[in-house]
Amino acid sequence: MGDKRVLLILIGNRKDEAKYVQETLTGWGCVIKTRLGIHEDVLSHCSNHGLIICELVGDKAKHAELMRKLNLIRGVHAKLVELSLDDKPPCRAASSTKRTPPPLKKPALPATAAKRKTARKA
Questions:
Q1: What is the rounded CA–CA span in Å between residue 67 and residue 109?
Q2: CA separation for the pair 9, 12 (Å, rounded)
Q3: Rounded distance between C-alpha atoms, residue 25 and residue 59, angstroms
Q4: CA–CA separation, 69 vs 28, rounded Å?
Q5: With contact defined as beta carbons under 8 Å apart, do 16 and 75 qualify?
Q6: What would the CATH number be for the domain defined by 4-48+57-79?
Q7: Are 48 and 14 contacting, i.e. CB atoms less than 8 angstroms apart?
Q8: Consecutive H or E run containing 115
Q9: What per-residue confidence (pLDDT) applies to 118?
């Protein structure tokens, strides 16, 4: 499956900065395969913070330049993340024998609670 490069974009003042982010992303549209925009509290009140997640394709140098340009916009923080299955060690096959977790230990009671419990038994 190859590497995946994802650009995470956090927008602090969405109402003011979104137009600049949109213009920048539109200009770099050829390297953006997938784009997802998220902001909180849509029903109660529209949040002024936003998160955009972009799956990138193509030249890595262009990805870095896109991130740099987004970071020049006030109130915007962009970060590139690269994921690869090749870097991960291979999974071990599932064992046919199931391991049971160790039994849970009961937490020790505080001294006052222990005295109350002893007094109830008496």
A1: 53
A2: 10
A3: 16
A4: 10
A5: yes
A6: 3.30.70.1150
A7: yes
A8: helix 111-121
A9: 61
> Shortest CA distance to 68 belongs to which of 15, 24, 11?
24
Contacts of 95 (CB under 8 A, 6+ apart): none
pLDDT, tens digit, 9 for 90 and up, residues 25-80: 999 999 999 999 887 766 667 777 889 999 999 999 999 999 999 999 999 999 99
Alpha-carbon distance of 24 to 33, in angstroms, equals 15
Interior angle at CA 93, CA 81 and CA 83, nearest 5: 5
Give the tokens for residue 68.
Answer: 């740099």
| Confidence check: pLDDT of 2 > 60 | yes
Q: Tell me which residue of 50, 38, 66, 67 sits closest to 11, measured CA to CA.
A: 50
Q: Is the Cβ–Cβ distance between 8 and 82 less than 8 Å? A: no
| Rg, the chain, Cα only | 25
Q: How far apart are CA 27 and CA 22, in angstroms?
A: 9
**pTM attached to this predicted model:** 0.66
Token pair belonging to 61? 């140098």
